[in-house]
Amino acid sequence: MFFDDERSNRLRPHILTELVGQFMNDQERAKLFGLPETTRIRERAKVISPDRLKIGDHCWIGEGAVLDASGGMEIGEHTSIGLNCLVFTHSSWLANMMLENHSGTDLIERKPVRIGKGCFIGGNSVIMPGVTIGDFATVQPLSVVAKDVPERSLVAGNPARVFQRYDDEYIQGEAERVRAENKRRRELAEERGETVVWGAPAGEFDKP
């Protein structure tokens, strides 16, 4: 049985869109949700109020992530949101405290979230309303981010705090290290007659 009221009719197209999206690959799903064509959004991920989400190119949204953009959300280019992450832009705690937790309550508070470019948000992390995460920041998995995160920093914990700062020299050095190691692994894989894929081939590569 389906209700024929304003709220139900407003929500149903979003429900159907998510249902259809489960049968698509990550790029097809991004196109269905109206995201940039270079965006990839994995299965079971959900975007609330997608019309209020501004997202850059080459972003990745992991399985089961929930992006609540109802209060406004910006995500910069080349940023990844890990699996099962929760990004909130609204809170209803006052509606609960005042016993007014009904549809249409005027005790919902909304604050935008801004996540910069080149960020990595580790899986199962929570981003609270009103938070700004600077460019090139890393949030370690299982973190709860309730305050702004400086650019080029690594944060972790509940509540999340800064453990490390990055500079260009450090990032460049790490990129060169990983590229060299992946090149070595691909060459060894070719010598073994194994199929070589992009990135780092899986398996044991400590021994020739």
From TrEMBL:
Transmembrane intervals: none
Single GO term (MF): O-acyltransferase activity
Cited Gene3D superfamilies: Hexapeptide repeat proteins
GO cellular component: cytosol
UniProt superkingdom: Bacteria
Keyword Cytoplasm: no
InterPro entries with a match to the protein in the record: Hexapep (IPR001451), Hexapeptide_acetyltransf (IPR051159), Trimer_LpxA-like_sf (IPR011004)
Entries under SUPFAM superfamilies matching the protein: Trimeric LpxA-like enzymes
UniProt keyword list: Acyltransferase, Transferase
Entry's family note: Belongs to the transferase hexapeptide repeat family.
Protein name (database record): Acyltransferase
Organism in which the protein naturally occurs: Umezawaea endophytica
